[in-house]
Amino acid sequence: MSSTTKSISLREAQKIVLLSQKLPTQKVATDAKNVTLSAIEHLGYIQIDTISVIERAHHHTLYNRNSSYNSDHLQTLVSDKKVFEYWAHAASFLPMADYRFSLPRKHAIASGKQKHWFKRDEKLMNAVLERIKFEGPLMAKDFDKKGVKHGEWKTAPTKQALENLFMQGDLMITKRVNFHKVYDLTERVLPSTINTKTPTEEEHGEFLIKKYLRANGVGKLTEMTYLLKNMKPLVSKALEQLLLSGDIIKIHVADHEYYILPESLELLNTPLTRKKLNILSPFDNLLIQRKRTSEIFNFEYLLECYVPQQKRKFGYFTLPILWGGKLVARMDSKADRKEKILDIHQLTLEPSLKKTEAFAEALNKELKLFLKFNKCTSVRLHKTIPASFQHYFEQSYPELFV
């Protein structure tokens, strides 16, 4: 280890990461919608997911950053042209202020340097583009021919054309109707004041690094380029330049070497709220890189909805629970919206969790808010591990349970 390389403890690294992620949730006194926008701008992206076992991931992630979050915020911010949909490591909501940094990917797809998963049909793409040009915003179903079936796992050719046009930047999404995308010409969606100058490779690399480190505290090259095709050489070069300039530094945490912004070390002087509990989405920015979650929080996590039922250990849609600066439990849940009951199929405590009474009190407090967020009024608890916790929890807080 170099004598000039700073070393911090794993506990200190966890604190920096959580504060950088705006966790645990802080109460806000300012306009709630602006707090949501600020969270998106700080985190850099909010992943969109279609699973609606509980409230969808993009709402869930923002709920954990804004105590006054409302699910209408996202659509309003899209309508106000403060946020737009595109691709980060996955489909996401992105800050409009960062629009120009989506251009390198769009240009690469348009030129054929980067492949999209749908086959390109230039003639059909042009026809789709012309219809939107003259008719205005349209959804994929507006192109469907009645009676034509494409098969359970097939995507209609016009939908493929729309997505290719979207990914290469000719179209943007103006809103969603019942979660269906509404497409329009990019020139009609973009604010007139937005910077549309394509960044240089140096600018792009620096942006990716600084954006990642502000949102995540510490990071490695592999983490900064997670699922970003062909970006490692560009980001690696930018890292060298930023190290030379002192804009970033290296630190050691246990057996791992990370990059960090020097000012992020000042977060060690900021108190971390340890009483507040957060029930997290599987797609939360804190958790999305599972290897990183394991290394920093010693928490092995797998979303088991993609695992055959007989092989599941924790449940179909397990939500990690953050408390006391640690990931201490997992809750397999489903919102029964008709009965307004949140089913907790299995609540599993980590073996390291010792203060179960204080944990139960914190979970009870958060569950009351989580129920409201999911439009439920009570909890149906099926199973806990250890089993002894179920009776204790239900008896301690009977007002929550049916």
TrEMBL record:
InterPro entries: AlkZ-like. Pfam families: AlkZ-like (PF06224). It comes from the Bacteria. PANTHER family: CYTOPLASMIC PROTEIN. This is Winged helix-turn-helix domain-containing protein. It comes from Cellulophaga algicola (strain DSM 14237 / IC166 / ACAM 630). The lineage of its organism: Bacteria, Pseudomonadati, Bacteroidota, Flavobacteriia, Flavobacteriales.
